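Rather than argue in generalities, we have chosen a single entry, letters for residues, whole numbers for local backbone shapes, without further comment.
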Amino acid sequence: MGRILTKAELAASYGADPADVDLVTETMARLGVEVLSTDAASRRVRIGGGLSRLARVFGADLEQVRSTDPTGGESTHRHRTGGLSVPAALDGVVVAVLGLDDRPQARAQFRTAKPEAVTTSYTPLQVGAAYDFPPGTDGTGQTVAIIELGGGFAQSDLDAYFSGLGVTVPSVTAVGVDGAANSPTGDPNGADAEVLLDIEVSGALAPGASYVVYFAPNTDAGFVDAVSEAAQADPTPAAMSISWGQSEDLWTAQARTALDQAIADAAALGVTVTVAAGDRGSTDGETGRAAHVDFPASSPHALACGGTRLETGAGGAVTAETVWNDGTDSTTGGGVSVEFPLPSWQRAVGVPLPAATAAGADPPAAPASPAAGAASAAVQPDGAGGATGGPAAGRGVPDVAGDADPDTGYRVLVDGQQLVAGGTSAVAPLWAALVARLAQALGRPLGLVQPLLYAGVAAGASAPGFRDITSGDNGAYAAGPGWDACSGLGTPDGRELLARLQA
């Protein structure tokens, strides 16, 4: 874990060169494009104008299409084909242009259980007790940001839910990004379930924290803007929970890099970004048998959260815990990235080659610098250099795990209905709550915590502060002693983890 930066330090070291921002502004104005806002610290320039003019400026070939979105539904959106270009004056300055293509980018990583399939269900408090969340902590003084790309919540649901648990109703504030807003649909099986699951799991486990829920459009530009707004907020959150994603190879290179950089900014400011690893096994729901990992969980700057099946006995003690695998389309994600190289802190734990690489495909390379694109421009960090080639092994996913099987899921209240829900969507807010409580006890933020979690951990060895999950698989990858590509380092022992971090 590196030194936590102030916002001023981050802007000075990694923000866009003010001269580059001025050049973008002047060039856009000369071409008849309106500059709506600039933010050198997060390297963003927002522009607006007629679609035909923007398409000409960036050489975009756009059409209106109807296609299947990541959730399996149908959506009508702008679709870009072919490459993009930027005015010659901005070559090497603008590294990503997002927003001309507004296809839905991500899916929520939650599952609601069929009543007949539920064998055991828990309140978040019971899961926190099973994982021995550190006593004497409740997140007081900390802020948790939650990123949502659809749906909404009603305060009446929160009041009823937390009162029913005997927990003080936490402070929850909604913030709209890029024109989106807290918009409950009234469908308890839709995006509202994701929103309420995130708030209720985290809020129950860290009720003393303040929660800020950022609602953004489900587009690559919306996702990047939501993460950037949350990271740059005042006060800086201790944790940011993200339960949305999609197979990393279904992102454009420029969008993937822009979002990874936004998460890196958050980590540098002291935010631990917890991200669901996906709910569709080692294929991440893609056709064929090839393995894929979910992004942004595969970002090396995110704490990737996998899923288990939790069983407890008398007194709430854990009696068994295995990898969550209920079959096709209901299994924890996990695997090895082909887009992000192996981080230094994972080199000793035995991350394998990606399943496709083991069969003869090319090894992963470091993330490529993105091609330029449209409507929200990302500017090159001041003094940044080009990417270099990465090692043969890629970033391993997940880092950590928690109860995710909907058949042993969480009791939640969504649009006035009692449901049992799971998925790795529940694990990201669970870990965000734990991070808030750890930060409270330590008196400091954790930021990129993986170097501490992996420190001294060898391949096949259990990590202090974790319950090692050694049984089960997610398809291509099986659990075993030590880190593995379906349960990571394992599930938390909060009390022991705090003692380790204090030491």
In short: The CA atoms of residues 264 and 301 lie 5 Å apart. The chain has twelve helices and 24 strands.
